[in-house]
Design brief:
Number of helices: 24
CATH architecture of one domain: Alpha-Beta Complex
Radius of gyration: 29 Å
Shape: globular
Oligomer: single chain
């Protein structure tokens, strides 16, 4: 196994450490992972919710909010339609809970049994027949063109909130909120479906609390520049900058009507930092007869943010944490915009304990849907995990208790491997309503019963998965030649729809090529696709799009439904399409990428401060790999029944002795290492929870007898 540690220029490490206020080891790890831009580093080092992106930057958000508030005012019936997976279940729960607290008449619906993914025609018609007025989709809907058209025919409005890839033709919904829409200015595309739903709830809270919702206002600032003055103005709507104006004017040279100022400011409320000074400056520029009506805002902001009192924007910029992360220098107006945004968020108390409970759901959906833990997803998941450990919301509390997580630290890996599969099992087994019920029921006894049911369903799902694998694996192996070694497929009437995604994921791991698993019904078939090594599934699906009833998903995980009458045509076309599959190259020998080399003095429990700071780990931010040299093996114990396959080591790092687990390494004992040897090793550092006690532990990835020692931390 190759060990690879990128060389990082010491001056870059020094610069990152000084600029962003982190230690040099943290700076070296970030640099080695190519996280060197301030905007990226911000989401690794900060966790304040004010660093999240404004929900009104998402396309369609204000239209969606206006329509929902109109439904509230008119007492209209609202239906939330979600997906059956964790992302859809948490999205449905989140929005239903919020609208219910507003007193709205709101119901929810998910695909049941073998119903297809996405908004169904039956759901639309049933809701219209019940005099429903508004359908809101969560984690689905972006491909439901016919269903949205039918809703319009029946007089039902549809708002789509989704995060799946949009196709060329979009549904004619009243509003579509999706960061992946063509032309979207939202700077982060990889929110989960529940992340988009959370942004909708946040936007609704803002609209209900803030007197400035739906209004535009201007922030004005002037500053001298040699023999001229610069007048800069930002026009905001719902705290989003929608327009900017910059005028450079020499005093006495032009009148105000000769500039763009009158038209830009017409009908606007104008706010200024130190309004008397701004008025005096404008009078100096344009003459004393010019009067620009503006409101002083510094004092009001000072009440909410006391550290700004008596300071100029220039001085505040020097203290600003947001300015620290800007990839280009911020001007005084940028600081003003940031201050005003923080002021409104604090004044309106937008982030409450209720918000923490919501983030627990968003965290589950984000982790379960394997969204990259970069950008704002990092703050969402970090805060959601913190809330989950401190005060788990009803439903999750019962599930955590039964799974042995109460009173212990929880990380994203625990959610991914244990909690999320239990919730997901309900949908995979055709009973997603049980998971939603667990999360919304008020009766503790009912939640307790549903938690037991979810755990039982998960065991049934595991058994079903094991049984189905014995069917799927040989079918896939047979298909490998048929698809030119570029793709595998398993299709059958005995493959249950709820596990096609899991089976496709396992096939990718087994055969190292994209995989398709299809459940064949009497009239229709439903399939799941999974990919790897950079291959985008969209072009493959687009070549077969005219054959599908419905299709969509993400770049590397997608699905479709198709009439059985088109099945043979699909197979033939897929064989042709498979010839175009190109995967990114994979090395002959596995390479372990090392984040940092640690001297033995760093191998103390204090290292968890660094590890915890860079949590959460998962997609897009894998757990840290460390290298240490010249540790002595004090003890070796073989583990595993009935045959010992694994090794437990006790490693002497000087002041501290570390237990280490080396999986599948029993045969290496006495050949590659033995008791008393001094070794170099690559490892992860984890916490092991056993018998209600937490102990630090190394997970050894590779180990070699030492050739040298004494390297500095880097």
């Amino acid at each position: 196994m190759n060990w690879e540690k990128r060389d990082i220029p010491p001056e870059l490490i020094k610069e990152l450490s000084a600029k962003y206020g982190c230690d040099r080891l943290t700076a070296s790890i970030l640099a080695r992972r190519n996280v060197i831009r301030g905007e990226e580093i911000r989401y690794f080092l900060e966790e304040d919710l004010r660093h999240l992106r404004n929900p009104f930057e998402l396309p369609g958000m204000e239209d969606a909010v206006d329509r929902i508030l109109a439904a509230k005012e008119e007492g209209e019936k609202v239906l939330i339609f979600g997906d059956r997976d964790v992302d859809g279940i948490t999205s449905t729960t989140l929005l239903w809970s919020f609208l219910s607290r507003l007193g709205m008449e709101v119901s929810w619906r998910l695909p049941q049994g073998d119903e297809p993914y996405g908004l169904s025609m039956e759901a639309v018609e049933d809701f219209a027949a019940a005099c429903g007025a508004l359908i809101i989709t969560v984690d689905c809907g972006i491909s439901n063109i016919a269903e949205v058209d039918r809703a319009k025919e029946l007089g039902v409005d549809v708002i789509i909130t989704d995060h799946h890839n949009p196709q060329e033709e979009l549904p004619q919904a009243l509003a579509i909120v999706n960061p992946k829409l063509t032309g979207s200015s939202y700077l982060f595309r990889d929110l989960a479906g529940c992340g988009v739903t959370y942004k909708l709830v946040w936007a609704l809270r803002f609209a209900l609390k803030s007197e400035i919702y739906g209004q535009s206002l201007c922030l004005l600032n002037t500053r001298p520049s040699k023999d001229t003055y610069i007048i800069e103005i930002a026009k905001l709507r719902n705290l989003v900058v929608i327009d900017r104006l910059l005028e450079t004017v020499a005093p006495g040279m032009v009148g105000i009507t000769d500039t763009r100022l009158p038209r830009f400011l017409e009908g606007q409320q104008i706010l200024a930092w130190d309004a008397p000074l701004q008025k005096k400056t404008l009078a100096k520029i344009f003459g004393s007869g010019v009067e620009v009506h503006m409101l002083e805002i510094a004092a009001e902001i000072g009440k909410e943010i006391p550290q700004t009192v008596g300071k100029s924007l220039l001085r505040i910029k020097e203290l600003s944490r947001i300015a620290r992360y800007a990839d280009k220098p911020l001007g005084e107006l940028d600081v003003f915009i940031s201050l005003f945004t923080s002021f409104i968020q604090k004044r309106e108390n937008l982030f409450t304990d209720e918000d923490g409970a919501d983030l627990q759901l968003v965290t589950l959906g984000t982790v379960a849907d394997i969204m990259p833990l970069r950008d704002e997803n990092r703050i969402i998941v970090r805060r959601g995990l913190d809330s989950l450990m401190k005060a788990p919301r009803p439903g999750l509390q019962e599930l955590l208790f039964k799974m042995g997580f109460i009173g212990r630290r929880i990380n994203a890996g625990d959610l991914s491997w244990q909690l999320c599969p239990a919730i997901n099992a309900a949908g995979r087994m055709g009973k997603p309503e049980k998971a939603v019920g667990l999360l919304i029921r008020e009766e503790a006894g009912e939640r307790d019963r549903l938690a037991d049911e979810l755990i039982a369903l998960n065991e049934d799902r595991k058994a079903l998965g094991s049984d189905t694998w014995t069917v799927v694996e040989p079918l896939a192996e047979e298909s490998l030649t048929e698809f030119g070694g570029a793709l595998v497929m398993a299709a059958g009437e005995n493959i249950v729809r709820g596990v096609t995604g899991i089976m496709a994921t396992r096939l990718v791991s087994r055969f190292k090529v994209p995989a398709v698993v299809v459940s064949l019904g009497d009239e229709t078939a439903a399939g799941s696709l999974r990919s790897l090594r950079g291959y985008d599934l969209r072009p493959l699906l687009e070549q077969c799009a005219d054959l599908f009833i419905d299709w969509g998903g993400h770049n590397f995980a997608a699905g479709f439904s198709i009439q059985r009458s088109n099945w043979e045509k699909f197979l033939e076309r897929l064989k042709i399409a498979a010839r175009t599959i190109e995967l990114e190259a994979e090395g002959d020998e596995e390479t372990l990428t090392i984040d940092a080399e640690l001297p033995l003095s760093y191998l103390s429990p204090d290292i968890f401060t660094l590890i915890d700071r860079l949590e959460p780990y998962g997609e897009g931010n894998t757990p840290l790999n460390f290298l240490a040299r010249d540790l002595k093996i004090n003890d070796i114990i073989l583990m595993g029944k009935p045959e010992a396959k694994h090794v437990k080591l006790t490693l002497d790092a000087g002041k501290y002795k570390w237990p280490g687990v080396y999986w599948q390494a029993a045969e290496k004992v006495k050949k590659e290492f033995d008791t008393g040897d001094r070794v170099d090793l690559v490892f992860k550092i984890t916490r092991n929870w056993f018998n209600n006690a937490e102990t630090p532990q190394l997970i050894i990835l590779d180990l070699k007898r030492s050739a040298e020692s004494g390297r500095p931390a880097s």
